[in-house]
Write a structure and sequence with these properties.
Layout (H helix, E strand, L loop, with lengths): L7 H11 L20 H5 L4 E6 L7 H17 L3 E5 L4 H13 L2 E6 L4 H13 L3 E5 L10 E5 L1 H18 L6 E6 L5 H20 L3 E7 L5 H14 L3 E6 L2 H13 L15 H9 L5 E3 L2 H16 L8 E5 L4 E8 L2 E3 L4 H6 L5 H4 L4 H7 L4
Parallel strand pairs: 1-2, 1-3, 3-4, 4-5, 5-11, 6-7, 6-8
Antiparallel strand pairs: 9-12, 10-11
Helix pairs in contact: 3-11, 4-5, 6-7, 8-9
The protein binds beta-D-glucopyranose.
Amino acid sequence: MRKGILSIGAAAAALTLGLTACGGESGDTSAETSSAPSAAAGDAKPGKIGVILPDSKSSARWETADRKYLEEAFKTAGVQYDIQNAQGDKTAFQTIADQMITNGATVLMIVNLDSGTGKAVLDKAKSQGVATIDYDRLTLGGSASYYVSFDNTAVGKLQGEGLVKCLTEKKADKPIVAELNGSPTDNNATLFKQGYDGVLQPKYDSGDYKKGPDQSVPDWDNTQAGTIFEQMLTQEPKIAGVLAANDGLGNAAISVLKKQKLNGKVPVTGQDATVQGLQNILAGDQCMTVYKAIKKEADAAAQLAVSLAKGEQPQASGTVKDTEGNRDVPSVLLEPQAIFFDNVKDVVADGFVSKDELCTGDFADKCTEAGIS
Ligand code: BGC
């Protein structure tokens, strides 16, 4: 699906070198660098940047990480910005976008709630001359000028491989694996599933693993995830491994497993390296999570947005194919990292979570054991 993929280091380099202003009047951009916007653009006061986050319940990341890092990047750049959260409400999402544009936003960055409503927001913004960025989730059939995210198929692959590692360590024999997928309206959830099914399907086919229940969780709703997993476990009490698409869904499954005293026995995956997910790993209830360095994602997106707000036309380092819109979207994709008990410390060392928030109460001893100092 995707064409250009970058490692974190490469992406950072490409951003430094690649976000070259090429909107100058002369049309000759060869001598320009990222820090030297075109004369025409450089004179104008940068426009405002509007960001719409999706909700605050499907993952802790949006409010605790994305908002924080985007804010920091915009403040450092000295641009005007407005970050709002649609709280899962698609109508509110459109209203927020309209208000942002009325209030002078010239750049709009969105995390869509689904491709249909995302497209409506993007198309309307574009028709009013507002530059647009798809942040984290690609809007299928949309019109965003740029897309910034992680390699989401790679995220899923790490989850699949992580579950295999944990099941192997437990010497599971022909384990029944349940899949608790993300929202069916989130293109990322589709990509995560492609990634983990790429690992698990051959195991089902060979008979090494048995395919158990496989269901999507509407809107990544953690409460519904609990109900869905409860039904899965009733239907198939011998579930021996759970591929949960993020830490919130994983935690919902763990809560159900706890009631049957199966937590710790049945490995569960996750994503986002949330404090809760990492604590579940430290407790031995969660097998792994996927750490996405959101600071890098926010920095990359902010750099594009700031450049656009200055009237430049930055160049992204790669492209991603929007199969529905049949177009190549200029993109920056970052690399995810798998986290198990032994490298939870990497997430702390990277400054994504602090020792103070992670190593509370009973987790203090586990933190010491995991080498978190
Ligand atoms: C994001 C994940 C997040 C999920 C639920 C996905 O689009 O990539 O990081 O856990 O949405 O909010």
